[in-house]
Amino acid sequence: MEKQQTESKDESISLLDLLIVPLKRKKTVLIITLAAVVITAAISLLMPGIYMAKTRILRPQQKSSVVVSQLLSQFGGAAGTAASLFGLNSPNALYIALLTSRPVMEALVERFGLVKLYGAETVVAASAQLSSNVKVRSSSWSGIISISVYDRDPQLAADMANDLVKQEACNY
Q1: Contact 52/152 with Cβ under 8 angstroms?
Q2: pTM for this one?
Q3: Engineering a disulfide at 109: which of 10, 75, 126, 154 sits with its beta carbon 3.0 to 4.6 angstroms away?
């Protein structure tokens, strides 16, 4: 009986082998990288500028229950019930909900003529687009409410953010 000797081949890949492959293809890697840089630069230069106007307000601490009840009375009797059902028990959450509400957005659309500017067919469509451009957030530990408005016109963004603050101040 003859014994056959089997040769065991080392099929493992070393780190050096992994480094050699990109070095052999360095021209291809360089071309792909440069193409990605050029395409990214072209896209970013062709995109319109979007500006953000940000303002911050501090919710008044005194008479908060009176202010909350006045704000809720402006939106009807069921607003208090709806607020508690949707977890708007904290005053900041309530103010955020009111600032981003449909009546407030529609008032901004009317005041700044956003139906024409946004190319929308109705006030409701323009207010929906405005709602996506307005971000209102609250800091849980400080009570500060941040209002950010995004638009292609920096002055219009600032005016809308300031108008939201004025609307909030008028409710006091």
Answers
A1: no
A2: 0.62
A3: 126
The encoded tokens of residue 63 equal: 């008479």
The answer on 61 and 38 residing in a single domain is no
Burial class (CB within 10 angstroms; exposed 0-12, middle 13-18, buried 19+) of 155: exposed
Provide the number of structural domains found in the chain.
2
Mean pLDDT of 6-21: 72
Q: Are 161 and 53 in contact (CB under 8 A)?
A: yes
> CATH code at 125?
3.30.1890
Residue 99 neighbours by CB under 8 Å, 6+ apart: 136, 145, 147, 164, 167, 168
Supply 125's token pair: 């469509």
Strand partners, 55: 147
